Amino acid sequence: MTQQRHNWTLKEVEDLFILPFNDLLFQAHSIHRKNFDPNQIQISSLLNIKTGACPEDCLYCSQSSKYDTGLEREKLMEIDLVLQQAKQAQDNGATRFCMGAAWRSPTDKSLNKVISMIQRVKDMGMETCVTLGMLTQKQAFVLKEAGLDYYNHNIDTSKENYSNIVTTRNFQDRLNTLESVQNANIRVCSGGILGLGEDQTDRASMLRSLSNLAIHPDSVPLNLLVPIPGTPFENIKPPTENEFIRTIAVARIMMPKSVVRLSAGRTKMGDTMQAVCFFAGANSIFYGEQLLTTDNPNTDSDQDLFVRLGINQKQANNLQSV
Ligand code: SAM
Ligand code: DTB
Ligand code: SF4
């Protein structure tokens, strides 16, 4: 049984980051194999159910009202349209349907509409995930009662770098929502973005914060920043492939039973890069041609990649740690 540690020191994490590449990947892949079938990948699909006009100022985001990104605002989607999209995602092999809203936090009235969506998507036999911004403890309990499986709430970067990427909330606000979600017994999906001007110590610190949560997140999405024209980060320097792969490997070692998702940014990654990320411990992707507001690889090329890598999608429907 692999031990789930909650007491990593920053030094220990930084020492993992600077291991020789092959040693790091060997260690990460060995842990991956002990805990998961290495040829299975969990497939999630995303839908933006409310677009743009967000009052937050996240410097990377197409949906913040503070930047002119040319994005058309759309109010909360009608439930029938959401169900159509969920059905299509399910037909394409997705097992989890994630619905995102560009909110700082949901009003109770909007939450009621989202609850109907969750219940109807669950009735279709899919796992549900929503990402709606900050929640009160009461709202988290209401979502649990509605049958929600996962809540996504990314910490995005290190505590130390946080005020450089958003000023309308703080790192502790993020942790508070995660605590409310865990108190309500909803599984947590939380990770971050690479390419927000952070350094290796920030990446180590971010992973440390995730692994120090009361329960490791069930899913850890690691996004490569999708640079959005019109945002302050449109021209920021991206991390190298080596830095990105190392972060996946260290996440796998620190959170051995969590599903690590190779999330946004795959359109910029070649097949070999993605294959190495899977070897390093990533075992989930967002599948489908759209993320929230930006493009994802087309499904045919993902299918081809799975075939070439021998990834068994049928069995991927019930990815469990072993
Ligand atoms: N408003 C809610 C919130 O911030 O939690 C939910 C939606 S928000 C778009 C969900 C997550 O998407 C963010 O926390 C961030 O990690 C990720 N994200 C947003 N824009 C991104 C971008 N341009 N590149 C990569 N990830 C991005
Ligand atoms: C996550 O970690 N990444 C997803 C999901 N959770 C909500 C969002 C990626 C967004 C990429 C930029 C966009 O499409 O707007
Ligand atoms: Fe709003 Fe979420 Fe985008 Fe931040 S990341 S601007 S909170 S939609």
UniProtKB/TrEMBL annotation:
Domain of life of the source: Bacteria
Keyword terms: 2Fe-2S, 4Fe-4S, Biotin biosynthesis, Iron, Iron-sulfur, Metal-binding, S-adenosyl-L-methionine, Transferase
Any single Pfam family the record assigns to this protein: Radical_SAM
Catalyses which reaction(s): (4R,5S)-dethiobiotin + (sulfur carrier)-SH + 2 reduced [2Fe-2S]-[ferredoxin] + 2 S-adenosyl-L-methionine = (sulfur carrier)-H + biotin + 2 5'-deoxyadenosine + 2 L-methionine + 2 oxidized [2Fe-2S]-[ferredoxin]
Listed PANTHER family: BIOTIN SYNTHASE, BIOTIN SYNTHASE, MITOCHONDRIAL
HAMAP family tied to this protein: BioB
Protein name: Biotin synthase
